[in-house]
Amino acid sequence: MKDQQQKELYKGFWVSHMPIYSSFINRVRALKKRGHLSWFKLTNIIKEKFTCPICGYNGPFRDKVLDTGVRKHARCPNCGALERHRLRFLVVQTIFEEEHLAKLSMLHFAPEPFFQGYFKKRVERYVTADLDMVGVDCNVDIQNLPFSNGSYDFVYASHVLEHVLDDRKALCEIRRVLKPGGIAILSVPLVGERTIEYSEPNQEEWNHVRAPGLDYFDRYEECFSRVLKYTSDSFSGKYQLFVYEDTDERSAEKCCSGLSVEDGKNIDFVPVCYV
Ligand SMILES: [Zn+2]
Prior knowledge:
It contains 5 helices and 16 strands. A 7-stranded mixed sheet has the order 7-6-5-8-9-16-12, sandwiched between helices. The protein has one domain (81-274): Vaccinia Virus protein VP39 (Rossmann fold), CATH 3.40.50. It has 275 residues and is an alpha/beta fold. The model is unreliable at 247-258 (pLDDT under 50). The structure holds zinc ion (ZN). Zinc ion is lined by residues 52, 54-55, 57, 76, 78-79, 81.
């Protein structure tokens, strides 16, 4: 009986002190992160400084080390956003400001975690989707969507279409589920002038079924009435939206100077498609 009472006492103690304990742990984690950031800034004091449009951090960005080489100024050390995330964030922010779409309904494919919170706060109806990702609202095939015509105002699918066998069908489906005046952001990684179709998913390129080129914009234009093109130089240089990539490892067929503004400095593109 005494043991039971002691157990209840301990349980009560932990339940009442748990919020204090977890708040202490969170503060220690925040201090540790601040410490790491300060140390990173100190040890990279001579590096160029940039601003992250997502979290507001100001200072040097981290380089990203890949099998193909080092990608300079790639990652925000505070929130982890890469060049492509920062560019897409600025495009989305511009669209939201210009189009006054506060009451929109949105479909987000392959949802990136840090975009989910941003979108959720701004749109009235937010639906996440993916073919097989766990935790999304709908597991759907983008080539055959189970939604009625004109269900959404805004569709966002970044780095998805290069994985889809029949991407033209997927584009038609996205247009079908958009309302009149609807908008879709459907960026793909552009790696050359001409799109190369693979006969099967390329395991060396994250199972992509094609390597989209600059001519990939023709596919958007086949389906949508207007396509706006945002690029790495559409916004201030302080956000660092270029991809400093060593292209030596790419095949000669795919390597193209058309995407490079200077040696190793490549432009990224974001298409904004209007119904
Ligand atoms: Zn950031």
